[in-house]
Specification:
The complex is a heterodimer of chains A (231) and B (40).
Chain A: H1 3-34, H2 49-76, H3 79-111, H4 119-140, H5 144-171, H6 191-224
Helix pairs in contact in A: 1-6, 2-3, 2-5, 2-6, 3-4, 3-6, 4-5
Chain B: H1 9-39
The chains are: A mainly alpha (231), B mainly alpha (40).
């Protein structure tokens, strides 16, 4: 079996999963807007929660995958791990863009400000810039081995930052709310809201899987055909 | 409940549109790249 059909197969399957994920996203919109009660104090802007929190979850998951694949690459030197890390980093940046645009849209009506330099927001922005740097680094290095090695180190640094971003709300005084699901005690959210959130997290995770698979397949095809990458 | 439950609805609408544009746009970009790669 040659690598081109495998890359094409991954691309095709990935696109199928993305299509399912986009349908699911439409379902989440209906569920959030039609079948989930409005929060008592914030009103409609609270419904941004159902697109913002899953975006943050997906971005952090993608960046964690970059770090894990990078560490494995430095150990095993398998170029597929480097390609996977590159794909997950790009997808993580996409979800970060959703997180960093929907956050201020929620903050403005609730905190009365678009942005504040508190620890959670600032470290999330630093993580975003770190992975923009990761992409820039990959674009600047010509030698594939050197590119994979150097970017793996940056990917691991990103992985180190992910749990720290999660813990900022405990370590510092911040405006950002503390976790309501990913915490030692049980989720502090009414049942219908929790249901919609979990459905949305599931849909975003399906999208993440589809995006990474498609991007990986495109990268595999590009590498085999002589191009350096699928950007 | 706020005095007007629909107050600030524009922020929510904007957030939902931005999300759909970013995720849908990226999906479209990947689909176009895949189409181009399939032709080669």
């Amino acid at each position: 079996m040659t690598e081109t059909p495998a890359g094409r197969r991954a691309t095709r399957r990935g696109l199928g999963i993305v299509a399912l994920g986009l349908l699911g996203l439409a379902g989440v919109y209906v569920l959030a807007l039609r079948y989930t009660p409005m929060e008592r104090f914030q009103g409609l802007p609270q419904k941004i929660f159902y697109v913002h929190v899953p975006a943050a979850w997906s971005a952090m998951l993608a960046f964690s995958l970059v770090g894990i694949a990078s560490a494995l690459y430095l150990w095993l030197r398998d170029p597929r791990l480097d390609l996977f890390a590159e794909s997950a980093a790009e997808v993580g940046l996409i979800f970060s863009m959703v997180m960093l645009t929907t956050g201020p849209l929620w903050g403005r009506p609730v905190w009365n400000t678009w942005w504040t330099w508190d620890a959670r927001l600032t470290f999330t922005l630093i993580l975003f810039f770190l992975f923009l740097g990761y992409r820039a680094l990959r674009g600047a290095l010509q030698d594939p081995g050197e590119r994979a090695r150097f970017s793996a180190v940056v990917g691991i640094l990103g992985l180190v930052l992910v749990p720290f971003v999660h813990l900022t709300v405990y370590l510092f005084r911040t405006l950002h709310p503390q976790p309501i699901v990913l915490k030692p005690s049980s989720p502090s959210l009414p049942g219908e809201m929790l249901r919609t959130l979990l459905v949305s997290v599931g849909v975003y995770t399906v999208l993440l899987l589809g995006f990474v698979m498609t991007r990986y397949g495109l990268g595999a095809q590009a590498r085999l055909e002589g191009g350096e990458d699928a950007r | 409940m706020p005095a007007d439950p629909n107050a600030n609805a524009g922020y929510m609408i904007a957030a939902y549109i931005v999300t759909a544009v970013i995720l849908g746009g990226y999906a479209l970009a990947l689909w176009r790249k895949a189409k181009g790669a399939g032709r080669r």
